[in-house]
Automatic annotation (TrEMBL):
<dbReference type="InterPro" id="IPR038717">
    <property type="entry name" value="Tc1-like_DDE_dom"/>
</dbReference>
<dbReference type="InterPro" id="IPR052338">
    <property type="entry name" value="Transposase_5"/>
</dbReference>
<dbReference type="Pfam" id="PF13358">
    <property type="entry name" value="DDE_3"/>
</dbReference>
<protein>
    <recommendedName>
        <fullName>Tc1-like transposase DDE domain-containing protein</fullName>
    </recommendedName>
</protein>
<dbReference type="InterPro" id="IPR036397">
    <property type="entry name" value="RNaseH_sf"/>
</dbReference>
<feature type="domain" description="Tc1-like transposase DDE">
    <location>
        <begin position="27"/>
        <end position="155"/>
    </location>
</feature>
<dbReference type="GO" id="GO:0003676">
    <property type="term" value="F:nucleic acid binding"/>
</dbReference>
Length: 193
């Protein structure tokens, strides 16, 4: 256990080996917001994230505040997708993949993608979500669980930190596996038959 000794009557904070924190104070002192740690009750809560990656690594991760509509989605693409493409040095031969969410298939979104000359992978309607980013979200969730964030603010911070730490090799493997799986699907090659 570590203890920060109080100076000039300040509360004393201790941290248990499990990471739980306690604030010890004198009875006459009121709760001071600077000495409290916000917690999440009843299973926590969640945050909604948009992220991108390529075989070269993770791109930006963006927290979505409020309800996302087509305009917000396009703004996210402007502020996060395009800078990620530049940061990952993707060049011109890349293909953008998203699913058939109405925000993604809206006429205004399709027009924006066309004006930006972005090649989009066609996605059959009513198809299962085979997007490799689903595997990356799982990787992120495993990493977050190991860190045990205590509240939504901490959760967002941990998400950003862990997303940035995902090795490019993990991303490259997801892209490689995805390509192999889709070649089999599109060519109707079924192993074991």
């Amino acid at each position: 256990m570590t203890v920060n000794h109080p100076r000039s009557g300040a509360p004393c904070k201790s941290v248990s080996p499990r990471g739980a924190s306690m604030i010890m104070r004198k009875k006459k002192d009121e709760y001071n917001p600077k000495d409290t740690i916000p917690t999440v009750k009843h299973g926590g809560g969640n945050i909604i994230l948009w992220g991108c990656f390529s075989e070269k690594g993770t791109g930006r991760l963006h927290r979505i505040e409020g309800r996302m509509d087509g305009a917000m989605y396009r703004e996210i693409l402007v502020n996060n997708l395009l800078p990620s493409v530049r940061a990952l040095k993707m060049g011109r031969g890349w293909v953008f993949q998203h699913d058939n969410d109405p925000k993604h298939t809206a006429r205004a979104t399709k027009e924006w993608l066309r004006k930006k000359h972005l090649k989009v992978l066609e996605w059959p309607s009513q198809s299962p979500d085979l997007n490799p980013i689903e595997n990356l979200w799982r990787e992120l969730k495993v990493r977050i669980a190991q860190r045990q964030p205590r509240n939504l603010k901490d959760l967002e911070k941990v998400c950003m930190e862990e997303w940035a730490k995902i090795p490019a090799a993990v991303c490259a493997n997801l892209v490689k596996t995805y390509r192999k799986q889709n070649i089999r699907r599109y060519c109707n090659i079924f192993e074991g038959l």
